Amino acid sequence: MKIVVLGGGESGFGAAYLAKKKGMEVFLSDKGVIKDEYRSLLNEAGIEYEEGNHDEAKILAADWIVKSPGVPKKAEIITKIHQKGIRLSSEIEFASEFTDAKIVAITGSNGKTTTTSLIYHILKNDDLKVGLAGNIGKSFAKQVADENFDYYVLEVSSFQLDDIQNFRPHISLLLNLSQDHLDQYNYNYEEYALAKFRIAENQENDNFFIYNKDDEMSMKLLEKLEIRAKMIPFSTKLKLREGGFVNGEEIEVKLSDDFMMKIDELSLVGNHNVANSLAASIAGKILNISNESIRNSLMTFQAVEHRLENVAEIDGVKFINDSKATNVNACYYALESMKQPTVWIVGGVDKGNDYTEIEDLVKRKVKAIVCLGIDNQKIIDFFKDKKETIYSTSSMEEAIKVSKSLAKSGDTVLLSPCCASFDLFKNYEDRGEQFKKEVLK
């Protein structure tokens, strides 16, 4: 079988490596430049590849094409693949066909990385043989090739779900929906939301689908979608007969037996993290992990880097790195959890953002806005009548200097950009690292 892999990063190399190990004929093609570490891994594994080009004849001669999430679905080569009717899969689809491990797959607009890491922590803490992959950690395909795990916990994006045919997790989890990546979905929120729901489309009645009863779009779509898996809800607003909910000062999960825990014992703070902890607890209960073990995991879990990460307190000013907030809804959660007057650093590549969702929070919680991006005009235009103090900056060094001059003892400087990072940074991690470096400087 001829396999072509598009994209030579973590997931692309992993898929090519797995295909090679399974005795397939493999060719990897990357239109950009392949990083040195992956180039040397490809050479070491004896995988044929090209970079800076897509050899169409070679690509279109494939039996099966594996597309990395970074390759735009509107790219010309993708259109030609569809026209030829060649099977096109994401790495998670490809790798899942070569493992019998139970898969727990997590998607949603916000909280994916935190909840995925938390479920992995719960399983690992219970001494299960478990791998962490998808949009996080090491390539899923590479782990399937080299490891012998009984479970995988996968963070899954809509881009990965766009390219599935048979992907069937044992447990799927849809945390929430908000308007994100609309530029890739014809600026149609429902089209994007339906892409997320694909996580459950191949599940059968011996599988589980965990969903958020507080999420408006999820509930609207569930009325017209047919989900065959056993559906288990969670809510921070409603008491439920079955599922996870908040009961006074506690979280409670009602399934075959009950799990309860005080909210102030959770290691993660903020209402959104109560929801994430409920979802993770339900997954733990489905997998028969003891209450004691789940409680211990929820108390000992360390928050994810670049997600409401406390960097330092300098001269009474707290600096918080929330670089992973690449959409308005993620920033909403960050602003909601601010207890002190906040200097807010925002900006980058706008993905069709609507700032009305956070307008009220900005009025109440933010004392000054520091825009950070090549083009800050949309943010300035939206907030200029709502906030007196707005600055425009075009480097992290400048943004931190301006923020420091605006913040007094007792204030917080929050980097929560609402936007993608590609105008000034390699990715959100690079943006977060530069924030931390400049703060500590």
TrEMBL record:
InterPro entries: Mur-like_cat_sf, Mur_ligase_C, Mur_ligase_C_dom_sf, Mur_ligase_cen, MurD. Pfam families: Mur_ligase_C, Mur_ligase_M, MurD_N. Its EC number is 6.3.2.9. Pathway: Cell wall biogenesis; peptidoglycan biosynthesis. GO terms for molecular function: UDP-N-acetylmuramoylalanine-D-glutamate ligase activity. Keywords: ATP-binding, Cell cycle, Cell division, Cell shape, Cell wall biogenesis/degradation, Cytoplasm, Ligase, Nucleotide-binding, Peptidoglycan synthesis. Residues 306-418 form the Mur ligase C-terminal domain. It is found in: Cytoplasm. It catalyses: UDP-N-acetyl-alpha-D-muramoyl-L-alanine + D-glutamate + ATP = UDP-N-acetyl-alpha-D-muramoyl-L-alanyl-D-glutamate + ADP + phosphate + H(+). Residues 106-283 form the Mur ligase central domain. Signal peptide: none annotated. ATP binds at residues 108-114. Cell wall formation. Catalyzes the addition of glutamate to the nucleotide precursor UDP-N-acetylmuramoyl-L-alanine (UMA). NCBIfam families: murD (TIGR01087). Belongs to the MurCDEF family. This is UDP-N-acetylmuramoylalanine--D-glutamate ligase. It comes from Chryseobacterium suipulveris. The gene is murD.
